[in-house]
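Retro notes
What went well: the complex prediction finally ran end to end.
Inputs used:
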Amino acid sequence: MKKINFYLLEYAINYILRYKSKNIFISIVLTLLVAILASFFFVQNSLKLEFESTLDAQPQIIITNQKAGRDTTVDEKVIDKLLNINGVGDVVSRVWGYYDFSHMNAKFILVGIDEFENQDNATLASIAQNVDLNVSSMLVGQGVKKTLSNSYYRKYFNFILPDGESKKIYIAGTFKATTQFESNDMIVMNKDTLRNIFGYKKQEATDLAVTVNNPKEIASVILKIQNMYPTFKVVARKDLKTVLQSQFNTKSSLFLILFMVSLFTFFMIIYDKSSGLSSEEKKEIGILKAIGWRVEDVLKARFYEALILSFFSYIIGIIIALFFVYILNAPILKNIFIDYHTIENNFKLPFVLDYETLLLLFLLSVPVYLFATIIPSWRVATLDADEVIR
Amino acid sequence: MIRLEHISKIYDNDIVALDDINLIFAEGELVILKGVSGSGKSTILSLIAGLLKPTKGDVLVDKKHISKLPDHFCSQYRRDNIGFIFQKYNLIPTLSVVDNILLPLIPLNLDEKELHVKLESVMKMFSIVHKKDIIVKNLSGGEQQRTAIARANVNNPKIILADEPTANLDEKLSLEFIKILKELKSLNKTIIIATHDPLFFDLDFVDRIVEIHNGKLVCS
């Protein structure tokens, strides 16, 4: 086995240090490039995980009522009839909706619960079991609490009712949901209080959550419900997941295109800097050839030099991205991805380290830089040494 | 033995550097190539070193057709046989003396002990050991030349080629170089020097003077 030529390696390190300013510039650009791209992928992966967990917490089937193609409330009286359909395990009415906190420039989700009813979601079930929410109290998510506090609503908030009157609801505390995505902009209150805020009548709900005993029967249950109630819009969780995921992917793709454009620009800068050999560098290659170095010796030295520089930049870029995303919580970048209801999302991104992403980033940085360095050196090294050193 | 057979060299800009040159250099011989600037002396050295290919003719070193060797083998031939002292030394100015002298040995990947012995002996021989860690661009002209000579000899080549070795030196340093030359000659190396410095023409240890004018041999 051929032993590693450490003298050549030492020469390569020495070469990096001798052309310090050029190599520092290249290293900074390459590090930034890797850091930006890695941050983008890390945020995307984390949000995808958070997003999928949130969707997994959704009911198997959601029923909404429509009038003239617009969503309207569902009457809770249909629940008994739906429970009679073969295969249906449970039907829970849900009262929820967005409330516009316009002066705070934010929209939060209000969710109503009834302690005597089953809940369709683990977070709400836990709240219903452990907290006694009376008609004038509410529990708020961490993000909501911060936004309300910023507007000096630390103990209560006055909701405006449809008739223009205001209703004071006290903040009983905060809650933690299974996903931070969910809890960030959510407010939980008594179902009747929420009906009052939204102007719903007694026994009116926003939608119904249906649980099917055997998941294989979901499609046939949907068909039966649609036959019974033609005005109902019946959506399965997996369809909802597909639609929302495609929306998320479209958004990611759009930003990826933008990133690719800026990446291309960065690569051009790097290519220009690394491929434009100075007369000094060209002469050095000529001298090496004249004293007996073969083309492959010259290229090996340049390979080591480019590998050291690009791998170092890659590692530093990844470390910066990890720090930016998981320690600083990806300011700005995170909100670009989220179809947010609040101005700020304060939830912590879950740590996801995907090896495929790391490999992709490696391939986008290290080999590209190696080629950009070796090809121009090869061109010079294959010329007559006499021509280069004269 | 080095043979130049019917060598012509025409550069890309149609300048005729050499025109049908025939020359033989015996082993251990010290030959001066004499001629004015642009006469073709340096081109002869570059052809012997395999740094250039002739337009016509053949260069044979120990019966090997140097001018027909592919680039890869040409480099290897230079590494094993040639020590070239360039007119402007062609040192890497940002490297230290020892790092410059080490350069021809790097591709050989020798073990540390052997490498150390070679470096030390060549630096001692050319009195540059005390400057070994100094960056070359900070050295005087004479010291730079000694570094270049040390680099050319670190592989113990049998052929030494020197192109205008005293062009950038004062008289005192030129005489020092002649002393070194005598030492190299005593080691039975074949030495070819391209120069127009009269200092070399009356040396008793020079075997032959070859005069070149406008790419043609005038006398040998």
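What we learned: Chain A has two domains: 6-54+244-389, 74-205.
What to try next: split runs per interface for comparison.
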